Amino acid sequence: MKILVTLILLVHLPLMSSAHDYYFAFAEVEYNEISKRFEGTIIFTTHDLEKSIQKDHPQFPIMDAMTLANPEFEILKKSILDGFFIQVNGQKENIQLEILGVENFLTGTTNVYFESDRIESLGSVKFGFKLLMSDYDGQQNKIAFKYGDLKETLYFMNRENEQTLNFNIESK
Q: In the predicted model, is pLDDT for residue 9 greater than 50?
C-alpha cells in the first residue's frame, strides 16, 4: 500500500507543484450617472501580483492582510495604477483613480475597489489594462463596462492592451 501511495505522489507531484498555465485579471467598471464617477473593482490572482512586485521590491510582503494602512500599500497602488488606466474624451492624461479598499479571498484572488474624480460628460472612454502583461506572456485581461443600459465587454492581450469606446452618454 505504501508503494502505491508513493507512486501516486511521485506521479502527481510535478502536476501539483507547477504554476498555472494561464493568467487572468478582470475589472468591472461602471459610470455612475448620479455621482458622475467611474466606480469599479479590479480582480486578480494574488500571488501573481505579489510575485511581479517582489521582482523590484523583494521585501514586499504577501498580501493576505494588506490594507490601505500598510506602508507597502503605496507599492501595490502604483503597480495597479501603472497597469490600469482610464482616459476620457480624447485626453492624453489618465483620470485620477482613488483606491478605496483591498480585499483578499481564500480562493487566492484579490479585489481592489476604486472610484474616479468627477467626469461631467463622456464622448469616449479609453481603457488601458496591461496589469501583469510584462511579467506573464499568457496574461489576458477583461473589462466589463456598464452605464445604464449600455454594457460592453473588452478583452486585452499583450499586444492589444488599450481599447476605446466612442459614444455620447449626454444624449441618453
A: no
Q: Is 44 within 8 Å of 83 (Cβ atoms)?
A: no
What is the per-residue DSSP string for the chain?
Answer: -HHHHHHHHHHHHHHHHSPPS-EEEEEEEEEETTTTEEEEEEEEEHHHHHHHHHHH-TTPPPSTT--TTSTTHHHHHHHHHHHEEEEETT-SSPPPEEEEEEEE-TTSEEEEEEEEPP----SEEEEEE-TTTTT-TTEEEEEEEEETTEEEEEEEBTTB-EEEEE--GGG-
- Measured in Å, how far apart are the chain's first and last C-alpha atoms? 70
User: Closest Cα to residue 46, out of 101, 105, 97, 128?
Assistant: 105
Closest CA to 161 of 138, 129, 132: 129
pTM of the model: 0.84
Residue 2 binned pLDDT confidence (cut-offs 50, 70, 90): low
CA 116-118-119 angle, to 5 degrees, is 100
Edge-first strand order for the sheet with 139-147 is 97-104, 109-116, 37-45, 23-32, 139-147, 150-156
Residue type, 22: Y
